[in-house]
Specification:
The complex is a heterodimer of chains A (234) and B (546).
Chain A: H1 2-15, E1 19-25, H2 32-41, E2 48-52, E3 65-69, E4 72-75, E5 79-83, H3 88-96, E6 104-108, H4 115-122, E7 128-138, H5 142-147, H6 152-160, E8 164-168, H7 175-188, E9 193-196
Parallel strand pairs in A: 1-6, 1-7, 2-5, 2-6, 7-8, 8-9
Antiparallel strand pairs in A: 3-4, 4-5
Chain B: E1 3-12, E2 20-27, E3 30-35, H1 37-41, E4 47-49, E5 56-59, E6 61-63, H2 69-73, E7 77-78, E8 84-85, E9 91-92, H3 98-110, E10 119-124, H4 136-140, E11 148-152, E12 157-160, H5 162-167, E13 191-193, H6 195-202, H7 209-212, H8 216-229, E14 231-239, H9 243-254, E15 261-267, H10 273-283, E16 291-299, H11 329-342, E17 345-350, H12 353-369, E18 378-381, H13 387-396, E19 399-402, H14 405-418, H15 420-425, H16 430-435, E20 440-442, H17 453-462, H18 479-493, E21 511-514, E22 531-536, E23 539-542
Parallel strand pairs in B: 1-4, 1-5, 6-14, 7-10, 10-11, 14-15, 15-16, 16-17, 17-18, 18-19, 19-20
Antiparallel strand pairs in B: 1-2, 2-3, 5-21, 8-9, 11-12, 12-13, 21-22, 22-23
Classes of the chains: A alpha/beta (234), B alpha/beta (546).
């Protein structure tokens, strides 16, 4: 039966592949919620699992929500959202064993969290691989936050751990200023790809599945990603 | 209307109008009056009770920063360095070597029936063992077949045996995480640092979710420990309160024989600032005689000895990178503003002086929007505050609860490693706080250090470190000031000073019953005073029978 062959394909494909995890970081107001809602709306048929530190920190657009029970929000398109609190590994284990299986995990880091420590934790869970760290920066606010005596070092550490920096609300800044800002950011995070974005409006393919999935089970896949030390304070 | 008059050898009242009396009259669980027998006879018929004729009574002691988890921990095996008393009153001698720790656990192991059940110890502190690190091989000597774990005193490190690592899926090459030290063979040593690693391994060694949250038995055990420490009111500083947990607290504390009033704070996890403030405000009306609700605890930064506290320039003495924010500054501001608008009190954990500065500045800004002339927002720990910060706190109407026990337990560490000599001497600066007119209390943070306000008072008065040095001579306070701190001082920080904290007409009949007079013994003997028990709400609890 078709169903059966579908399942066999799942075993051959999804089952043996590692489930990719993307961490989305950045300070409050940078646009993480907008981005995640955009990705849930435009998921390209991928089942996304969104993990948030606390439900209070992320508001999923209500028209996307299909059901909510036992700490799990079911979202149209087969996506889910749950809060991990102090047990990220437990939550990742739950996501891993979901049926039907999810295609990609998005972990929303709290505003002052360091994404590298979340990536390091992901690397401990069998069957998961770290895909990328995306850090959002509000074009209007970011320089002020980076110069803030309380926040500055945290913001810089977040940048130094990013694979992609999304420069959000970039429509609100004049072009000249935006170029200037990109140059400044490149200095902070020379290895990161910097993408200006408006209203979280970016195709999902630009953000996830950066690394090629392992085509067959690897004997020793090694660590998902080396843990980078945060850069020294400026 | 039954009136009972207790005669005591001495009653220390904390009421400056009559600091010492001989008798106290009680009616309906409240103090009808304090004074001489003759003065109290005017209230009408009474029954004279002389059981305390050779005891010293004080206002019931108040612990302003502890966790009821101290009661739950005694369901596991204590393996700490210092002697410690359990809820039954049994003193467990400190384990002074890895061998002694292993022997203690082995002994507990022989008493277990189920061969697969996990065995969990707690309280290990390698600082006192020349920082010798325990390994999985050590714990394999306890058992190679059942999962065995030890939670460190700091609460930030968990040791597990090979079986425990195996069950957690960590017994493999290639673990690449700063919280998992590896041995020469590429496998984990068995030490697991940081909460996200401890949780998944911890559940296999008995540290399940029930261990981390409150349970009825743990709460009752906590109540018994309070009696032994002379405590009649204690905060439970930081519970993720929800309707189920509030019901559990209500049921347990309502029992006729529950011996303490708990002030359970709602911690700022798991809710947005708006939900946090609204929910906590809604709890206030559920308060009972022995469960006081409606306050918020916010955690701003980490710990100094864990190098996760936020320090001002020049940072850590050993050059460690600055610590972590546990709350975003803008979220702190939102919580303060909403709480002030709703009249909800907030206590904020700030260990480092940068976290303290953030809390001060954030509150000052919030007060401009929502003026409140009696907010009593309190900084908890506030260990590194400078004199200037205390002055500012005094002007803003803030209170402080200083971690006096830290001098003894980690003072040497702070001096040599974390903040260096100059700032170590001003840590937990009780004297500076009082001079700046900041209402002050002192705490144990049990289970981080043992519950015992008389010990905490001793620590603030003597400022001795574990190695016997006086650290911060000028910040020592008088015995009378320390006794005020653990009674009325704590009551003020919790906005309960109209109810408790002194032996005065109208207040709750809460007393600590002591064998000696803390104002007469030498200051260095304050910690050795025996506690007979307590009277709480007029009910008598003897430590020997609890």
């Amino acid at each position: 039966m078709g169903n059966r062959s579908g399942r066999a394909r799942l075993c051959g494909g999804r089952y043996l592949m590692k489930l990719p995890v993307t961490v989305i970081g950045g300070y409050l107001g940078a646009g993480k919620t907008t981005l995640i809602n955009h990705l849930l709306r435009n998921n390209d048929g991928l089942r996304l699992a969104v993990l948030v530190n606390e439900f209070g920190e992320l508001s999923i657009d209500s028209e996307l929500i299909e059901a909510q029970e036992d700490g799990l929000i079911s979202i149209s398109g087969g996506c889910v959202c749950c809060a991990f609190g102090s047990d990220l590994i437990g939550a990742l284990d739950d996501i891993k064993s979901m049926n039907p299986p999810v295609d990609h995990v998005l972990v929303e880091a709290s505003g002052v969290a360091l994404p590298a420590s979340i990536i390091a934790t992901v690397g401990l869970v069998d069957g998961l691989r770290a895909d990328a760290v995306i850090v959002l920066a509000d074009a209007e606010q970011i320089r002020r936050n980076a110069a803030d005596p309380y926040l500055g070092d945290t913001i810089h550490r977040q940048f130094s751990q990013a694979d992609i920096i999304l420069l959000t609300k970039s429509d609100l800044a004049p072009k000249e200023e935006l170029d200037d800002l990109r140059g400044w950011l490149r200095g902070k995070a020379p290895k990161a790809r910097i993408l200006p974005v408006q209203h979280g409006n970016l195709p999902i393919s630009a953000l996830i599945a950066l690394a090629r999935p392992c085509p067959r089970p690897c004997a020793n896949p090694g660590p998902a990603r080396p843990v980078r030390q945060p850069a020294a304070d400026p | 209307m039954n009136t009972k008059i207790y005669a005591a050898k001495k009653i220390i009242t904390m009421n400056p109008n009559q600091p010492v009396v001989s008798h106290v009259a009680i009616r309906n669980g409240r103090i009808l009056g304090a004074g001489t027998l003759e003065q109290l006879q005017g209230w009408g018929p009474y029954e004279l009770d002389t059981r305390f004729a050779d005891k010293v009574l004080m206002p019931g002691l108040i612990e302003g920063h502890a966790h009821s988890m101290e009661g739950a921990l005694w369901q596991f095996t204590y393996v700490g360095w210092f002697d410690r008393m359990d809820p039954d009153g049994k003193v467990w001698p400190g384990a002074k070597s890895i061998d002694e720790v292993v022997a203690r656990l082995k002994e507990a192991e022989t008493r277990m029936d189920d061969p697969d059940a996990p065995l969990l110890g707690w309280g290990l502190d390698p600082i006192y063992m020349d920082n010798l690190r325990m390994t999985r091989a050590d714990l394999d000597r306890v058992s190679s077949t059942r999962p065995v774990g030890i939670m460190h005193a700091s609460g930030h490190i968990l040791n597990v045996n090979t079986k425990g690592l195996e069950l957690a899926g960590l017994l493999k090459q290639g673990n690449d995480h700063p919280g998992i030290p590896l041995a020469g063979d590429g496998l984990p040593t068995g030490e697991l640092k940081s909460p996200e690693i401890m949780m998944p391994a911890g559940k296999h060694v008995g540290m399940d979710r029930a261990f981390l949250a409150a349970d009825a038995n743990g709460l009752r055990n906590y109540g018994r420990l309070c009696v032994r420490a002379g405590v009649t009111t204690s905060s439970d500083l930081g519970q993720q309160l929800n309707d189920d947990l509030v019901k559990l607290f209500t049921d347990v504390t309502n029992a006729e024989d529950f011996p303490v009033c708990l002030a359970a704070f709602r911690i700022n996890f798991g809710m947005s600032p708006a939900e946090l403030v609204d929910y906590t405000a809604s709890l206030r009306k559920l308060s009972t005689e022995r469960l006081d609700l409606g306050r918020i605890k916010v955690i701003a930064d980490g710990s100094i000895q864990g190098f996760s506290a936020r320090l001002q320039w020049p940072g850590y003495y050993n050059g460690s990178e600055n610590g972590l924010w546990y709350v975003a500054p803008d979220q702190l501001a939102e919580i303060y503003e909403r709480a002030l608008a709703a009249g909800v009190q907030v206590h904020t954990h700030t260990n480092g002086d940068q976290a303290t500065q953030l809390a001060i500045e954030t509150l000052e800004a919030a007060l401009r929007k929502h003026p409140d002339f009696d907010h009593r927002f309190t900084l908890q720990h506030c260990q590194l505050a400078s004199a200037a910060q205390f002055r500012k706190m005094g002007r803003l109407g803030m209170c402080v609860n200083l971690f006096a026990n830290h001098h003894f337990y980690w003072g040497d560490e702070h001096y040599a490693l974390t903040v260096g000599p100059e700032r170590a001497e001003r840590m937990n600066a009780c004297k500076s706080a009082l001079e700046a007119n900041v209402p002050m209390t002192i705490h144990s943070d049990a289970p981080v250090t043992p519950l015992g306000p008389l010990f905490t008072a001793w620590a603030a008065v003597n400022r001795l470190t574990a190695s016997g040095r006086v650290q911060g001579e000028k910040e020592r306070i008088e015995v009378a000031q320390a006794l005020h701190a653990i009674t009325l001082g704590a009551a003020i920080t919790m906005k309960m000073d109209h109810l408790i904290g002194s032996v005065e007409v109208g207040k709750r009949a809460d007393f600590a019953v002591l064998e000696d007079d803390p104002t007469e013994v030498p200051a260095e003997a304050l910690k050795d005073i025996s506690v007979w028990g307590t009277v709480q709400g007029g009910r008598v609890f003897a430590a020997a029978d609890i």
